[in-house]
Amino acid sequence: xxxxxxxxxxxxxxxxxxxxxxxxxxxxxxxxxxxxxxxxxxxxxxxxxxxxxxxxxxxxxxxxxxxxxxxxxxxxxxxxxxxxxxxxxxxxxxxxxxxxxxxxxxxxxxxxxxxxxxxxxxxxxxxxxxxxxxxx
Length: 136
Fold this sequence. Notes:
The protein is of the alpha/beta class. It has helices spanning about 20-25, 80-90; strands at about 10-15, 30-35, 40-45, 50-55, 70-75, 95-100, 110-120, 125-130. The chain has two domains: about 1-55, 2,3-Dihydroxybiphenyl 1,2-Dioxygenase, domain 1; about 65-135, Roll (2,3-Dihydroxybiphenyl 1,2-Dioxygenase, domain 1). The strands form two sheets. The chain has a four-stranded mixed β-sheet, covered by helices on one side. Strands 5-8-7-6 form a four-stranded mixed β-sheet, covered by helices on one side. The longest helix has 13 residues, at about 80-90.
């Protein structure tokens, strides 16, 4: 078998929140792959995709329980994380866990892991992260 790659992730959400995901991923420069009242698909520059669709039953997401903890979105520049923080503030979405911040425990001596963590209206935990040389 040849080396595989991540293809897609599907998250069930409350349909009233589809605009949150559409606007966020538009800001993050992802392409809309599919958009109807019951499903939104967005894709990154590498061919990976996220799909948000109608939940099949009532269930409160708990990212600290069994299951997926968070979805991490990589950005090209440290300033992109700060720009995301400003976007989130304008949209009333608070940053969590004392972010944005550098995480030296996740990076080497000449690089940084700089992140902002936040929660969607459906309690999906999301991270926008830059890894690479630390900006001055």
